Amino acid sequence: MKKFLKIFFLILFISIIIFTIVFQKRIMLCYGIGEKYISLKDDIWTTKELDITTFSNSMNYSDVVYKNTNGVSLTLDIYGPIKQVYKSSPVLLYVHGGSFAYGDKSIPVALSPVLDTFREQGYTIISTSYELMKNTENFNKQISDVKDTIRWIYKNKSVYNIDTEEIGVIGVSSGAYLSLMASYSNDEDFVGDTQLSNYPSKVKYLIDFSGPTDLSLLNTTDLNFDLSKIFSSITNKDNIIKKFNPMTYVTSTIPNTLIIHSNLDTMVPYESSKKLYDKCIESNAKAELITLNSTAHDLSTISTDDIVSISEGLLKFVIFNSPL
Predict the structure, then answer these.
(1) Is 108 strand, coil or helix?
(2) Where is the BD-FAE-like domain (predicted)?
(3) pLDDT band at 307, cuts 50/70/90?
(4) Count of C-beta atoms within a 10 Å radius of residue 11
(5) R_g of the chain computed on alpha carbons
């Protein structure tokens, strides 16, 4: 019996060593994210932006033009890896929100712990812009902008030492919607720049923060002047709702998807994310849904329990989707 126990514990010890070596990068990535979230405590989920001056100091490339449409240049920012962990760097693409009409590619403070830790563990972070809606609806253009960003990453992978087998996307609100549409649709769909059309648009995984899916569920009452003009410009609503619905593009081969949404969200109803999750499960796609119970659409008044849920969910998702 003693001999058996010695052999058993020897095998267990060797297994732990092997597990630690093989998954060391994932363990360090998760530890770093958790440590940064704990250090920020209550300040993390405020709606204020990250200090742009401080963050831009660590930016490697600012306002890189990824496409030019009708004389209008669209740009992205690149934050390279702080440590050279991988031969080629995995990349995480950030797509901002702003009700389709507002916002920019500045990194919000709530995401800085995740993105900082990714960089420390060898990742490249790319934050992209897209043409904001003015006066009229233009879902097709915005989706093609995000999709062309992904194509641009493939085109320039050797220039920036990027591993295109390890592309993840994180989108917030309307940015999450655009990320879903760009990531779920086929390579030949939503082409903006013809010079990028021959490049793939496939990504490995997607993190969706409160993104709308069924546009008919959006709360369009009491909109401001800008948004009222945009939504009133839609004449063929049924066609728009069907064509520009991420659920239309769900198959078993879509990227692994993490959905985070509050059931108290009055701007983008929780039902929107629940329907997407159910469609993914029905289609045998890999998806997870984290339901928040305390906060509004902008994550204001978030509870400690929900912060824990988000942090834990992100950590698990990172473990199973980051490279070894």
Answers:
(1) strand
(2) 76-279
(3) confident
(4) 10
(5) 21
Burial 266-303 (b: 16+ CB within 10 A, else e): eebbbebbbbbbebbeeeebbbbbbebebbebbbeebe
3-state secondary structure 224-285: CHHHHHHHHCCCCHHHHHHHCCHHHHCCCCCCEEEEEEECCCCCCCHHHHHHHHHHHHHCCC
In the chain, the N- to C-terminal Cα span, in Å, equals 37
Rounded Cα distance, 320 and 246, in Å? 23
pLDDT of 267 reads: 81
**Widest CA span of the chain, in angstroms?**
79
How far is Cα 204 from Cα 172, in angstroms, rounded to an integer?
Answer: 18
Residue 96 pLDDT more than 70? yes
Pick the CATH number of 32-321 from 3.30.70.2190, 3.40.50.1820, 3.50.50.60, 3.20.20.150: 3.40.50.1820
- Using DSSP's 3-state secondary structure scheme, residue 168 falls into strand
Q: What is the pLDDT of residue 35?
A: 62
Residue 217 near residue 269, CB atoms below 8 Å: yes
Angle (nearest 5°) at CA 44 between 40 and 50: 100
Say how far apart CA 42 and CA 46 lie, in whole Å.
Answer: 8
Q: Which two tokens stand for residue 72?
A: 């209008």
Query: How much of the chain is in helix, strand and coil states, percent to nearest 5?
Result: 45, 20, 40
The first and second tokens of residue 228, run together, are: 């009222």
pLDDT range class, residue 42, cuts 50, 70, 90: very low
Residue 153: the pLDDT is 98
